[in-house]
Design a protein that fits this description.
Elements: H1 2-22, H2 37-51, H3 57-70, H4 74-83, H5 95-100, H6 102-109, H7 116-123
Length: 130
C-alpha cells in the first residue's frame, strides 16, 4: 500500500519534469473555482481514504472516481484538491499543480474519461503526454 502511494507521488514528479523539459507545460492554468458541497464532500472522503494507511488501493480508487464524478469540471476539482492536498497524497498542492496531477486520478480511476472532471481535463489538454 505504501509502495503504491510512493509510486503515485513519483509518477507525478516525473511527469511534471518531463512536461517542463518538453516544453508542454504551457497549458492554461486551472482557474480557482467555487467548490460545491457534493464535490467538497467527495474530496474529503478521498482525503480520508488516502490518510488511512490501512485503506486498500481499490477503496482509494473508488473514492477518486466518486470525486471525479461529483466535481463539475477540472477547475472545481483542482480547487478542492488544492484545499485538501492529502486527497492526492501530497502535503501541499497549488490549484495549478493539482490540475497538472489530474492525469493520475483519471488514469487510475477513469481511463475512459467518462467523468465530468476527466472529460474536461482531456478537452483542455491536461491528459496529453505530449
Amino acid at each position: 500500500m505504501e509502495t503504491m502511494r510512493r509510486v503515485h507521488f513519483l509518477a507525478a514528479a516525473l511527469r511534471a519534469v518531463a512536461l517542463a523539459i518538453s516544453g508542454c507545460e504551457n497549458f492554461d492554468a486551472a482557474r480557482t473555482s467555487n467548490i460545491g458541497e457534493e464535490c467538497q464532500s467527495a474530496i474529503q472522503k478521498q482525503n480520508e481514504a488516502w490518510s488511512d494507511h490501512e485503506t486498500p488501493q481499490i477503496k482509494i480508487s473508488e473514492a477518486e472516481k466518486m470525486a471525479l464524478n461529483a466535481c463539475k469540471n477540472l477547475d472545481e476539482w483542482s480547487t478542492a484538491v488544492s484545499y485538501n492536498p492529502g486527497s492526492m497524497g501530497y502535503p501541499e498542492l497549488s490549484t495549478e499543480n493539482a490540475a497538472n496531477t489530474v492525469y493520475l486520478a483519471c488514469a487510475s480511476s477513469d481511463p475512459g474519461r467518462q467523468t465530468p472532471v476527466c472529460a474536461d481535463a482531456e478537452k483542455r489538454g491536461y491528459l496529453d503526454a505530449t
